[in-house]
Amino acid sequence: MVITSIAAREPVPKLMLSNSLRAGLHGLVNALSKEVSADGITVNALMPGYTLTERLQELQLDLTKLATQIPARRLGRPQDLAAVAVFLASEPAGYVSGQAIAVDGGLLQSI
Question: What is the mean pLDDT of residues 78-90?
Answer without folding.
Answer: 98
